[in-house]
């Protein structure tokens, strides 16, 4: 079987998948994590067309390496729709376009709550169109967009996330283009095992006995002239591969027969089995048109082509260029190719998060947890991660892994959630052995405890002095620092008293993280011989950090105050009768009182001298 041929190539490419990081708010209520059906349909037991989802398949059903357009009156695309470019849903007359799970189809759908529509670029839904994702599936279908998403969606409880970037939106299939390229090249190199004949508008592929895959070659130009397809002498249950050569292909078949039975009618009991066995490979084509309004049977692989489809398709549709569905009521029904690999249902695993414990309500739905996986492939170790949302959205790991691959799972880098302390994670199972046709579901349970410290912090203030007059400042001198911050929309103020000795004083310590505190110093103390400079705060403001108390230092510069001389009284004092300064009455002498005795003495001396002179003159 080709499963063994393609298994290593496909799994290697898918193993390059990175973590899915969902960032935008959900468009609807969060889904409930539900374990998907753990198997794909067994080989040879593919269901016919119906309206009840019955099997789980996480592989890519439809891939457009360019842009995707649903227009005309096209109606549905069953399975995972992966678009590397932009996606536009614009029905000519408006209405609903179903993705993931459809009204009538194979019933082979992605797990409930998982991504069913992933777009690397922008996602646009026209005003008269509505896209429904995951209808009739428990948990609905999630949508991931690398760019913007506009328009009407109904996700049945799952999430819409936008602005992820191409790689994250497409993960774990961001490298799917290389998977398509490699698979087509590998298949195209296989030699034909049967014969091809064309006559009268009919192409007949005649097989050879045995249990090996039946391989046919056909020229695209010759095939374009036919409208009936017959497969004859094909061994039971084996895959059928048709390698189509040529650059341009227009093909509008309206009849498919397998070993004498028409199998493209819904009434055929082998409708599903026939669709799942046939694969059309266009390794060199740049343009393919699948026209008409009938049921086109089989998967399509065209790594370099842009394809326009007006028929309904049944199988996988993996296209490297643009993909347009523009028919009248045409649908895509998801039938994995029985040859396996990236086109098959394959084996793989998915995972979802469950949060329990007293602090579970504190964990936002969009909180992302990281699940690491590792396994051995072709003798080398492959590792990767999945991003699991707290709301239980299912994330798909690599699909199409070889049978028997053992995958080991661990949780790393638990997210920080205010008020929550995480208990040990429980991964069930923590080791997965891949089995063909099965998608193992892993549940990762985390217990959120509420005994963790709250997301609060605080600050403290200390005094520092500088300047030449610092020695004049006693160590117990007190200073008043005022603080201010906003809390719950109100301004809160308070003061702290700090001392010149530099001992730090705590301010409020239970402030919410992010609170901004401002400071000023008021009422500087008066100290003889000291003049204060402008206070300097370091830091000037504080933004509260979780569990931290920020120290603020306020520095004051003390300089010598200028000396002011004391005025001197020029009037001497006269002793009083008791020997004390004054006039004897105990009162201070005035200037006039002090001068009179001296003046009197001078006058008496002068009078004496005059009298003496007169006396001498008389004697002579």
Plain-language structure description:
There is one protein chain. With 620 residues, the protein is mainly beta. It is built from 6 helices and 51 strands. It folds into 4 domains: 18-343, no CATH class; 360-449; 456-560, Sandwich (Immunoglobulin-like); 586-620. The strands form 9 sheets. It has a 10-stranded parallel β-sheet with strand order 15-12-9-5-2-30-27-24-20-18. The chain has an 8-stranded parallel β-sheet with strand order 13-10-6-3-31-28-25-21. Strand 22 and strand 23 (261-262) form a beta hairpin. Helix 1 runs antiparallel to helix 3 (176-188). The protein starts with a helix and ends with a helix. Mean pLDDT is 85; it is low at 1-5, 7-36 and 582-620. It comes from Agromyces hippuratus. Residues 62-315 form the Choice-of-anchor A domain.
Across the major sheet, the strand order is: 15-12-9-5-2-30-27-24-20-18
- β-strand percent reads 35-45%
- Mean pLDDT, to the nearest integer, reads 85
Q: Unreliable stretches, pLDDT < 50, 5 or more residues?
A: 1-5, 7-36, 582-620
Radius of gyration: 46 Å
Distance between the termini: 176 Å
Apparent shape: elongated
Q: How many domains is the backbone divided into? A: 4
Structural class: mainly beta
Number of strands: 51
Number of helices: 6
């Amino acid at each position: 079987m080709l499963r063994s041929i393609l298994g290593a190539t496909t799994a290697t490419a898918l193993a390059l998948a990175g973590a899915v990081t969902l960032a935008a708010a959900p468009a609807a209520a969060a889904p409930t994590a539900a374990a998907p059906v753990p198997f794909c349909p067994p080989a040879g037991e593919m269901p016919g067309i119906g309206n009840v989802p019955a099997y789980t398949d996480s592989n890519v059903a439809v891939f457009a390496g360019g842009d995707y357009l649903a227009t005309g009156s096209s109606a549905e695309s069953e399975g995972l729709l992966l678009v590397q470019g932009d996606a536009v849903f614009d029905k000519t007359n408006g209405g609903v376009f179903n993705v993931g799970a459809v009204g009538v189809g194979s019933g082979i759908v992605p797990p409930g709550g998982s991504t069913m529509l992933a777009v690397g670029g922008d996602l646009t839904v026209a005003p008269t169109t509505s896209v429904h994702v995951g209808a009739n599936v428990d948990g609905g279908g999630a949508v991931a967009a690398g760019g913007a998403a506009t328009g009407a969606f109904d996700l049945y409880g799952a999430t819409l996330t936008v602005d992820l970037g191409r790689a994250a939106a497409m993960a774990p299939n961001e490298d799917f283009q290389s998977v398509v390229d490699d698979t087509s090249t590998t298949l195209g190199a296989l030699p034909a095992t049967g014969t091809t004949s064309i006559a009268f508008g009919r192409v007949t592929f005649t097989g050879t006995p045995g249990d090996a895959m039946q391989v046919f070659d056909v020229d695209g130009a010759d095939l374009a002239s036919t409208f009936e397809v017959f497969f004859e002498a094909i061994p039971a249950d084996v895959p059928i591969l048709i390698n189509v050569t040529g650059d341009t292909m227009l093909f509008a078949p309206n009849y498919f027969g397998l070993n004498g039975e028409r199998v493209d009618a819904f009434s055929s009991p082998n409708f599903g089995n026939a669709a799942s066995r046939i694969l059309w490979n266009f390794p060199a084509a740049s343009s393919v048109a699948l026209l008409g309004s009938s049921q086109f049977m089989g998967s399509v692989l065209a790594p370099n082509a842009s394809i326009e489809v007006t028929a309904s398709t049944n199988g996988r549709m993996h296209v490297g260029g643009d993909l347009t569905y523009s028919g009248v009521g045409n649908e895509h029904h998801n039938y994995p190719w029985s040859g396996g690999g990236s086109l098959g249902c394959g084996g793989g695993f998915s995972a979802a998060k469950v949060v329990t414990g007293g602090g579970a309500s504190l964990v936002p739905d969009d909180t992302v947890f990281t699940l690491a996986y590792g396994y051995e492939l072709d003798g080398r170790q492959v590792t990767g991660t999945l991003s699991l949302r707290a709301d239980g959205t299912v994330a798909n790991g690599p699909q199409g892994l070889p049978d028997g691959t053992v995958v080991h799972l661990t949780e790393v880098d638990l997210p920080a959630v205010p008020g929550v302390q995480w208990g040990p994670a429980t991964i069930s199972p923590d080791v997965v052995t891949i089995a063909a046709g099965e998608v193992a579901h892993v549940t990762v349970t985390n217990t959120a405890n509420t005994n963790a410290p709250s997301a609060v912090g605080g600050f403290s203030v200390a005094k520092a002095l500088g300047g030449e007059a610092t020695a004049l400042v006693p160590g117990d001198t007190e200073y008043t620092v005022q603080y201010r911050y906003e809390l719950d929309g109100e301004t809160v103020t308070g003061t702290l008293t700090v001392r010149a000795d530099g001992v730090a004083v705590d301010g409020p310590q239970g402030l919410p993280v992010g609170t901004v505190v401002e400071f000023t110093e008021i009422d500087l103390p008066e100290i003889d011989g000291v003049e204060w400079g402008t206070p300097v705060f370091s830091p000037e403001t504080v933004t509260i950090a979780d569990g931290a108390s920020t120290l603020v230092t306020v520095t004051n510069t003390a300089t010598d105050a200028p000396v002011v001389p004391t005025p001197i009284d020029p009037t001497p004092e006269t002793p009083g009768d008791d020997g004390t300064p004054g006039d004897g009455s105990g009162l201070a002498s005035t200037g006039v009182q002090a001068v009179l005795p001296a003046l009197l003495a001078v006058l008496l001396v002068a009078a004496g001298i005059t009298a003496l002179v007169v006396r001498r003159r008389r004697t002579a």
